[in-house]
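Structure (tokenized):
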């Protein structure tokens, strides 16, 4: 069943993309997180931290636990309905097509010189301020986002699907959404500390899997595989996040591009200003690396099926 659910969910993503917002569990999770955040304490480190822990635990369990019992009921009720609902919920936890489409759109806008529109489109990929970024930095930010989200939006959800089935994938995605919405510096920094730390823990293995898959993808797609390995080994620790630097540095090496967030980090060697064509390369690298990981997941699930048959 798990092998079929995974196959259906990936086919759904590639063929249809995201479910309608009204039927998207992660959209619902975002609304609940926003609702709870708005009612949290505006000051007091301890109060913010404890309330942030409540948001993370409540929201993650609110989606994972009902999903477990719903699917347990449907499995004995009707196999077809069980498979469709399982595929829908699993698909909601990851995204490949939408991520690739956003990157391609930014590349197209930059190639046409429509910088302001490209900056606006960047909102779908990053949460930081991009209003002052020029074309090379917009290219770099897009490549970074594609690399990092290869882990957050594809490798990690499927990793937790292997460990905990559909509820496990949903648990990860909701917690990752908590981190994206409240795990930042500023006035409410302590509100999001638990989300940020939990996200770091959950992404520790997937980020490194993604980086290794990107190195392998660089070899398979005739990009610079040796440099992908060398830059990953050298630069992975330069980011504030203990995880983001792994896939980003592997991509920087494989694509022969320097990725820079001014005042924070520089990954890779300087090959001149990044050009929009590098975004195309990053999407191709993401596609190959995600395909490698999907193949591994299918092998794992297929092996389980053979063992238990």
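Design, position by position:
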């Amino acid at each position: 069943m798990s092998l079929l659910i995974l196959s259906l969910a990936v086919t759904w993503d590639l063929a249809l993309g995201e479910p309608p917002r009204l039927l998207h569990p992660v959209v619902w999770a975002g609304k609940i997180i926003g609702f709870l955040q708005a009612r949290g304490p505006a000051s007091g480190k301890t109060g913010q931290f404890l309330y942030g822990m409540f948001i993370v635990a409540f929201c993650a369990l609110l989606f994972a636990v009902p999903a477990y019992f719903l699917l347990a009921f449907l499995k004995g009720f009707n196999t077809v309905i069980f498979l469709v609902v399982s595929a829908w919920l699993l698909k909601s936890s990851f995204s490949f097509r939408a991520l690739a489409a956003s990157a391609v759109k930014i590349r197209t806008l930059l190639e046409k010189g429509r910088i302001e529109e490209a900056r606006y489109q960047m909102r779908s990929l990053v949460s930081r301020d991009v209003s002052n970024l020029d074309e090379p930095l917009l290219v770099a930010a897009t490549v970074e986002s594609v690399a990092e989200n290869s882990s957050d939006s594809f490798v990690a959800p499927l990793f937790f699907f292997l460990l905990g089935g559909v509820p496990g994938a949903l648990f990860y995605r909701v917690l990752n959404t908590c981190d994206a919405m409240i795990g930042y510096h500023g006035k409410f920094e302590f509100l999001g500390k638990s989300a940020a730390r939990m996200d770091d823990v959950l992404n520790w293995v997937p980020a490194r899997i993604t980086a290794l898959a990107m190195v392998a993808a660089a070899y398979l797609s005739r990009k610079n595989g040796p440099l992908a390995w060398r830059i990953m080994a050298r630069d992975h620790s330069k980011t504030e996040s203990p995880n983001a630097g792994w896939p980003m540095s592997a991509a920087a090496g494989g694509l022969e591009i320097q990725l820079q967030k001014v005042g924070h980090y520089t990954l890779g060697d300087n090959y001149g200003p990044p050009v929009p064509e590098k975004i195309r390369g990053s999407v191709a690298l993401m596609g190959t690396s995600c395909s490698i990981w999907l193949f591994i997941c299918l092998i794992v699930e297929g092996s389980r099926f053979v063992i238990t048959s």
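Reviewer-requested clarification: The radius of gyration is 19 Å. Residues 3 and 303 are 10 Å apart (CA to CA).
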